[in-house]
Design brief:
Helices cover about 30% and strands about 25% of the residues. It has about 450 residues and is an alpha+beta fold. The structure holds 4-amino-1,4-dioxobutan-2-aminium adenosine-5'-monophosphate and magnesium ion (MG). Keywords: Aminoacyl-tRNA synthetase, ATP-binding, Cytoplasm, Ligase, Nucleotide-binding, Protein biosynthesis.
C-alpha cells in the first residue's frame, strides 16, 4: 500500500519503510546520486526521492524524466536540506510509464495559462491546476457541509427540461434519434430531430423552478449541479456549461434570503482560508499578491446593502465616463458593477429592488408595481457572483407577469400548482460555482477554474 505524499510530508515518524507513488516533476543530480521530485496530487508539495546510482540500473534512471510515473519503496528519513522535512532514500523504483521528453508537453516550467488551456486534459498535472482543483473540491465539500449542518436537503432538479427558467433566450436543445438508423437529409447527413421523444426540450439553465417544488414540500433545499447557457459570450466570466448552487427556502423573505447569502459566502471563504492555506499561498505567490488579504477583508465586515435606485444615483453622481449608459430602467453592465464594488464601496455589496422589466417573471413584485424583490451580490474582481429573489407567491400576480412577458401559462401549469395549493412566501438564490472559485483562487479567467471548460468553439476535450 502506498502512503499519500501529503501524509509522508507530515509524518512524525522517520526511519520507516514507505511506498510512494506519483509523477515525476523534476530530476536532477550527478553521476553518484539522482534527486527526483515526486508529486501525487495530494498536496502542492513534492517529496524528494534520493536514488544512489550504485543501487539502480542506469537505463532505468535515464527513463525517469518529467511526467513519468513511479512506484518508489524506501526509507523515510529526516531531510538534511532545509526546504523539506523528510525525503525517501530509495531502495526500489518501478517505472510504471515513461513520458518521452521529446513529446511530453509539460517539460519546461512557466507555461502560460493560455497554452495550458490548449492541453486542458494534461494541465491538472501542473502546480497551478492541482491547487485550483483541490480548492474546487474543498469548496464543493464545504457547500454540502454548510447546508447539511443547517438542515437543508440536497435536491436534484432535472438537467433535461421543457421549461425556461430565466427566459434569457439561448438554450441548448436536446434531440433524439435512433443511432442505428438516424434520419438523413437529402445530402445524407444526420438530420437532428428537433425533439426529445416528440417533446421539445433543452438543457436546464437553472434548477430553480423544480427547486421551488422541493422547498414548498421539504422546507429548505439546495441544488448543486451543472447548468447550461447557449449565449455566445466570450468573456472571462461566462461558460456555456457551469455549476450552480441554488438554495430555495419556504418562509424566507428577501431579507432572510440576503442574510443567508451573506452567511453562506463568508462561510465558504473562511473554509478556504482555514483548509486550503498551502494552495492559496502558492496561487498568491504566482498570480495575485493580495489574495488572502482580500479574502480576509471580505469576511471581516458586513456586505453593503443598497437598492438598484441608489446604485443608479451613485453611478450618475460619480462623474465617471462609462462605455454603456446609466439610466434608471437599464440593466447594470459589469463596468457599473465593478465601479460600485471596487471604487465606491470597496467591498461586497448586495443590490435589491430592480425594475421588473430587467428581471425574471418569478420575482415578487413590490408595492410600487415597478420594482421586484430581486437581489444580486456583487464581488470585487468578479462582479455578479449571486443572483436571487423573493418569489412571487400570489397566483394572480404571477400569472399576470407570465402573460406580460410571454411565459407559456399552460405549459407551466405544474409550476403554478405551488401557488394554487398552499402557497407560501419563499425565496432563493443561485451562486455560480466557477465565479466563487475564481474569487477564492484569485485566477482571472473562468476557463481556468473548471477542468474542461465549455465555451463557444471549445468542446473537444
Ligand atoms: O443570475 P442568474 O441567471 O440566476 C438564476 O439562474 C436564478 N434562477 C438563480 C436562483 O434564484 N435560483 O444566475 C445565477 C448565478 C450568477 O449570479 C452567476 O454567478 C452564475 O449563476 N452565472 C454564470 N456563471 C458562469 N457562466 C455563465 N454563463 C453564468 N450565468 C450565470
Ligand atoms: Mg443574474
Amino acid at each position: 500500500m502506498r502512503t499519500k505524499i501529503s501524509a509522508l510530508l507530515a509524518s512524525q515518524q522517520t526511519d520507516i519503510e514507505v511506498v510512494a507513488k506519483g509523477w515525476v516533476r523534476t530530476k536532477r543530480g550527478n553521476k553518484n546520486v539522482t534527486f527526483i521530485a515526486l508529486n501525487d496530487g495530494s498536496t502542492i508539495n513534492n517529496i524528494q526521492i534520493v536514488a544512489e546510482s550504485a543501487n539502480f540500473d542506469e537505463e532505468l534512471l535515464k527513463k525517469i524524466t518529467t511526467g513519468a510515473s513511479l512506484c518508489v519503496r524506501g526509507t523515510l528519513v529526516a531531510s538534511p536540506s532545509s526546504g523539506q522535512p523528510v525525503e525517501i532514500l530509495a531502495q526500489q523504483i518501478e517505472l510504471y510509464g515513461a513520458a518521452d521528453p521529446e513529446k511530453y508537453p509539460l517539460q519546461k516550467k512557466g507555461h502560460t495559462l493560455e497554452f495550458l488551456r490548449e492541453i486542458a486534459h494534461l494541465r491538472p498535472r501542473t502546480n497551478t491546476f492541482g491547487a485550483v482543483f483541490r480548492i474546487r473540491h474543498a469548496m464543493a465539500f464545504a457547500i454540502h457541509k454548510f447546508f447539511n449542518d443547517k438542515g437543508f436537503y440536497y435536491w436534484h432538479s432535472p438537467i433535461v427540461t421543457a421549461s425556461d427558467c430565466e427566459g434569457a433566450g439561448a438554450m441548448f436543445s436536446v434531440t433524439t434519434f435512433d443511432i442505428s438508423n438516424p434520419p438523413r437529409t437529402e445530402q445524407g447527413r444526420v438530420d437532428y430531430a428537433e425533439d426529445f421523444f416528440a417533446q421539445h426540450t433543452n438543457l436546464t439553465v437553472s434548477g430553480q423552478l423544480e427547486g421551488e417544488m422541493g422547498a414548498t414540500a421539504l422546507g429548505e433545499i439546495y441544488t448543486f449541479g451543472p447548468t447550461f447557457r447557449a449565449e455566445n459570450s466570450n468573456t472571462p466570466r461566462h461558460l456555456a456549461e457551469f455549476w450552480m448552487i441554488e438554495p430555495e427556502m419556504a418562509f424566507y423573505d428577501i431579507d432572510d434570503n440576503m442574510d443567508l447569502a451573506e452567511e453562506f459566502l463568508k462561510y465558504l471563504i473562511n473554509y478556504a482560508l482555514n483548509n486550503c492555506d498551502e494552495d492559496l499561498a502558492f496561487l498568491e505567490k504566482m498570480y495575485d499578491n493580495d489574495l488572502r488579504e482580500r479574502l480576509r477583508f471580505c469576511v471581516a465586515d458586513h456586505f453593503c446593502r443598497i437598492t438598484y435606485t441608489e446604485a443608479i444615483d451613485i453611478l450618475k453622481a460619480s462623474g465617471k465616463k462609462f462605455e454603456f449608459p446609466v439610466s434608471w430602467g437599464l440593466d447594470m453592465q459589469s463596468e457599473h458593477e465593478r465601479y460600485l464594488v471596487e471604487e465606491h464601496f470597496k467591498k461586497p455589496i448586495m443590490v435589491t429592488g430592480y425594475p421588473k422589466e430587467i428581471k425574471s417573471f418569478y420575482m415578487k413584485l413590490n408595492d410600487d408595481g415597478k420594482t421586484v424583490r430581486g437581489m444580486d451580490v456583487l464581488f470585487p474582481k468578479i462582479g455578479e457572483i449571486i443572483g436571487g429573489s423573493e418569489r412571487e407567491a400570489d397566483y394572480d400576480t404571477l400569472v399576470e407577469r407570465m402573460v406580460e412577458v410571454g411565459v407559456p401559462v399552460e405549459e407551466m401549469s405544474w409550476y403554478l400548482d405551488s401557488r394554487r395549493f398552499g402557497t407560501v412566501p419563499h425565496s432563493g438564490f443561485g451562486l455560480g460555482f466557477e465565479r466563487l472559485i475564481l474569487f477564492v483562487t484569485g485566477m482571472s479567467n473562468i476557463r481556468d477554474v473548471i477542468p474542461f471548460p465549455r465555451t463557444p468553439g471549445n468542446a473537444a476535450f
